[in-house]
Amino acid sequence: MDSFEWLHGFKVGFGLHHVNFEDSTRPRTPKYSAHFYHRVIKDNGFPTPEDEKILYGNFAKDFIWSTATASYQIEGGWRADGKGLSIWDKFAHTPLRVFNNDNGDVACDSYNKIDEDVSMLRQLKVTHYRFSVSWPRVLPDGTTNFVNEVGLSYYSHLVDALLKANIQPHITLYHWDLPQALQDIGGWENETIVFKFRDYANLIFSRLGHKVKFWITINEPYNIANVGHGYGAAAPGISFRPGTLPYIVGHNLLKAHAETWHLYNDKYRSKQGGIISITINSDWSEPRNPYKQEDVDAARRVVQFYIGWFAHPVFNGDYSDMMKTIIQKRSLEAGLPKSRLPEFTAEEVKRIKGTYDYFGFNHYTTVLAFPVDYGNLQHYDADRGAGTIADRTWLDSGSSWLKVSPFGFRRILNFIKEEYRNPPIIITENGISERGSVDLNDFHRSYYYEKYINQVLKAYILDGVDIRGYTAWSLMDNLEWATGFSERFGLFHVNHTDPKRPRVAKTSAAYYATIITCNGFPDPATGPHDCLNQEVEGTSVPSTSLPSFNMVNFLGITLSSGEAEKGLYTLFALLIVSSLGVICSLFCFLKTKKYSKEIATIQSVLNS
Ligand code: GBH
User: In sequence order, which residues have a C-beta less than 8 Å from that of residue 508 and are 6 or more positions away?
Assistant: First the structure.
């Protein structure tokens, strides 16, 4: 327990238990570390938790196996054949908005590479392909006054090529590239967008709907509203009214989605027989300290302000009481006449509620939450009243916000089941990035897919969550929005400095094809299983088992971990005389490779 710490008195506490020295009864309270140490003692070490053990089993027979892209991230052809400009064309052409001033002018040149793209999809053995339509490519000024037929024909050619390969198209109508002409009259802030979006959707349904049976109205309203109009880190890059604008935009996004769902439901469903929904993204959130009620409450707020912001109106009706109460209270306390969160009328609540055929869900990571009091500040983070961090033991990715935390996937899938009354779920995105030098042996990605998809299987088999499909983000390396080409999410690598934009499979492509062909994770005890031997042109994977993570790739040579250990010691001996910065990067390398023994050795040498 905390005690008299010599020269530091009671200021410094080494205890597993906190002692309140102001209180004459000297009460003791266990810290998180006490609970942690208790567990180590009870387990007599560190057994693999039930959570992390692999579950063998299969998904349903007609399970959707897909991979995804988005128009601005892959198409290029930014001025081709009469395409209008989008807010991302403008944003990316504004200096300092996108890392390295990268832009989507050419991107993966998918506008000219239908065959190459479909060939990759065939190799993956996916049943579906999720891509988005660029609104300004089809309607250059955003309205149906003029239809750009050449632009539209790109999508009908793509749809035909997919169907010919027996791959079902899953179309996103809006993946963030709003026609700039509509932004010029207020974009998503202007309520007239609701019907402009519906008219655009109407055109696409009428032209492609006889061949396309899977639709998404809007991708990630959270990002459009808060990142685009609150933080300003995505187009249109507005950040000067963070207290109101994200909520106004969110309001119009919900209405636009609902009107479009109704349009499909009333006018197209009986003839075309497809399904349509919205894709909502969210992290899962755990309390930073699960034994602290304040942290538990903060974690609940993070989830309710993230997934709940859009899912509550669509699946349960209206914004959650939590959002309504908190934003109203904080607005009034700041002297505003009413809540910054707009209100739906009773008819609007009814009109939006139930506008789904499935729950489209994007998920990547988990955060740890704790309360933060922002005083009188008026913005989304202040309303949420929480800060978030990651557990430092979670593996890193190429994106600062993305840490490998598979257990959270199962938890948030269960949250969806409980909170929204067990809707059918299609996972419309999940994946991991890398940055830095290119290494086609991307074992971190295979690892991520294995662990995350296995958690989906647990949610499906053990928890009865109604999961109908899974989509890997992304088919290929592409323009990762404000971070440009520096963060790569692809199953296939694309060299963005080569004018031919060649696609090359990473090792994870064959691994994903294996999971798809096996429709899950076959039990080795009932093997051998032929489905485990998937290959993709240009890659080879261990054929009888999941990728082995005991092999280490170093300067293009594949080493066993024993050899790597020797090499690392030699490398270390050289590094010790070089700068601290270099040593730090070695630490990061070792940490991601989980060489805790080596880290300990280096630390002890450094200390001495
Ligand atoms: C998805 O968004 C997108 O749909 C897809 O286009 C994208 O390529 C993919 O994921 C990978 O990022 O607070 O400004 O630091 C992912 C969800 C949520 C990730 C917000 C970045 C932090 C932005 N995004 N998050 S910021």
Answer: 442, 443, 445, 446, 449, 491
Contact, 499 vs 482, CB < 8 A? Answer: no
**Which pLDDT does position 464 carry in this prediction?**
98
Q: Are 160 and 106 in contact (CB under 8 A)?
A: no
From the CB of residue 149, how many other CB atoms can be counted at a distance below 10 Å? 12
Tokens of 533: 């031997």
Q: Which helix (H) or strand (E) holds 560?
A: strand 557-560
**Considering only CA atoms, which residue is closest to atom 8 of ligand 1?**
480
**Residue 372 CB neighbour total at 10 angstroms:** 13
Distance CA 183, CA 185 (A): 5
Q: How far is the CA of 478 from the centre of ligand 1 (A)?
A: 13
| 3-class state of residue 377 by DSSP | coil
Q: Nearest C-alpha to atom 11 of ligand 1 is from which residue?
A: 480
Nearest CA to ligand 1 atom 23: 227
Other Cβ atoms closer than 10 A to 554 = 12
Which residue puts its alpha carbon closest to atom 25 of ligand 1?
401
d(Cα 81, Cα 71) in Å, to the nearest integer? 15
Q: Tell me, what amino acid is at 242? A: P
Cβ-Cβ contacts under 8 Å for 145 (sequence gap 6 or more):
none
Q: Catalytic site residues?
A: 220, 429
State the Cα–Cα distance between residues 73 and 132, nearest whole angstrom: 10
Phi first, then psi, for residue 296 (nearest 5°) are: -60, -45
What pLDDT, on a 0 to 100 scale, did the predictor assign at position 216?
A: 99
User: Pocket of ligand 1, candidates 177, 401, 430, 434: which has the most ligand atoms within 8 Å of its Cβ, to mutate?
Assistant: 401
Question: CB of 425 within 8 A of CB of 407?
Answer: no
Angle 129-549-45 from CA coordinates, rounded to 5°: 120
pTM for the full predicted model = 0.87
* Ligand 1 proximity of 401 Cβ (cutoff 6 Å): yes
- For 421, counting Cβ atoms within 10 Å of its Cβ (0-12 exposed, 13-18 middle, 19+ buried), the class is exposed
Rounded CA gap, 365 and 489, in Å?
14
Residues 6+ apart with CB under 8 A from 163: 169, 211
Q: What DSSP state is assigned to residue 30?
A: E
215 CB under 6 A from ligand 1? no
| Ligand 1 probe mutation, 361, 473, 485, most atoms within 8 A of CB | 473
Cis peptide before 528 (omega within 30 of 0): yes
> 385 vs 204, 278, 370, 380, 429, CA distance in Å?
41, 27, 9, 8, 28
pLDDT of residue 302: 99
Question: Which residue ranges in the chain fall short of pLDDT 70?
Answer: 539-608
